[in-house]
DNA sequence: GAGCACTGC
């Protein structure tokens, strides 16, 4: 049994906010209540000071802990302080869609305006803004897209990058870009002022870093751009240094205290330790739900089984414990169970992946169990292979996890490792940009006019090998010229499409192969999480359902079949029905066919978006009908970098890297094992598995990708 | 014959 030693408190308990005070607020009428609530937020008392800081500093770092109110209040302060004069907008970026939407709704309510008017949001597939929007919440990825159309982000007077400590790829690219834009805008502003002063027209605005931005806008004047970087991590130094010693201010948070406990010794079996801790809490601690952080679906399912088994060994009266799993691949209706109250007298134990760390907040959590591990993706640029491995979390992740116990009252966090192990953890998680394939990032930067990728001012520079590998890949796809410039029209078109570059290339090729109709569906389906969902207990049924759609040609055509079947359903039965009704029928059909309806809907959204894009580009949208040969030849031409040949033992050799790989058992070609194939994904888990596979003819490779295969062989 | 954390355009 893991014995717990008390660790230090996370926060000073005297900072404990007054819950009674909050309850009193409920008695106020709506509007008064909101106003009172705003005034009670920690950030409210520093409004004037913050606005002075923004006026005097072009870049400001704000460190605000959970519950400080920074995300909802700061944009309102800026609006009231006059930062939207001359019709300018305040932009606030979020790493996640759901945050952009919920915060915008909240702020519109606080301002007493209709959502989409003065306060709005914009995320992919959904735009709730208008000409009068002055406070605009959006995802960071969307702002990056906006920069492609408006390189100076000229409509914004202030851009706030929220949750910057998460260091997603989008945040990191955005930070580098904003730094350039800010410099370029101040320079254009100052130069313009000087030009006007001296009544000269020959001012040259060339600047090594910002040449392109400046060239595009020489004749226009832009007011300087204010940047505010908001982070929840205690260490603002990194951001401050990156922005040339920018000023950092600290805003107090409002969290309840969480007691942290460690084990005396390292636990050899953390699942068993988690199990014991669950029951220890259940039997010995006061009411409150438990949140356990596990690394994946399999672990969650096995802990769930074990909890249920052990529960049966307890006396009748102690069995009131309800397990609820939550992970991203779980269908949404099952995810919802985590948010429901447990029946009276029951305690809920939520078995969650990282999804519960930031993406969703489950109410009622008083106890957190943290084994200190996470399943993380890493990328090997030399092999061009991703892997999913279980690694220790960082200190900031551990704090984020324990904080989940202090949302509504004081809580307890049980770390299933000794305190000495905690001290050895990295301070923060390695930024994603250092552990992913950079092809998309580089394509975007090239399209934004950044030619010298190796010299780009990243906050954390990816390895040279990783950059070079992606440049090489983009060159082989025809997106870059011999001089490493964006090619026209291919590279430019590829950068316009919100897809993995390989998929963008496939669309362009498909217009030449007369199968763009099919390829649009294929890449939309490949761009979402797994379409098929097979719960362990119904695996046979799921397999039978999947066979209804499977094509002997491979997974690509099988996915097209699923999409066509859903099309047919929507055409046949849904003319004139409301959107809700349609959604309901589609969900039912998905359930019957073991298809993840969230994934399919997502694919349908992507499909309609990219269809719009390719039509606008003037690509020819045609169907190859029953000519599967044509479609497979197009797959070979598109995915030639991912071709593999069968070996005598039944494994495959990937031609580009020489690696020995295996077909993933979820593929429709798992048994057929054709001689030559193309695939879309290579991930190392227990084996090196390739997924999403189609059968091709070996001879097509040298015919359709001679620039690669003739020189190689 | 296996199992894939999480985001985002």
UniProtKB/TrEMBL annotation:
Single GO MF annotation: hydrolase activity
Gene3D superfamilies with a match to the protein in the record: 1.20.120.1080, P-loop containing nucleotide triphosphate hydrolases
Reaction catalyzed: ATP + H2O = ADP + phosphate + H(+)
Sorted UniProt keywords: ATP-binding, Helicase, Hydrolase, mRNA processing, mRNA splicing, Nucleotide-binding, Spliceosome
InterPro entries registered for this protein in UniProt: AAA+_ATPase, DEAD-box_helicase_OB_fold, DEAD/DEAH_box_helicase_dom, DNA/RNA_helicase_DEAH_CS, HA2_WH, Helicase-assoc_dom, Helicase_ATP-bd, Helicase_C-like
Domain Helicase C-terminal: start-end pairs: 275-449
GO BP annotation list: mRNA processing; RNA splicing
GO cellular component: nucleolus; spliceosomal complex
Cross-referenced PANTHER family: ATP-DEPENDENT RNA HELICASE, ATP-DEPENDENT RNA HELICASE DHX33
Family in the record: Belongs to the DEAD box helicase family. DEAH subfamily.
Protein name according to UniProt: RNA helicase
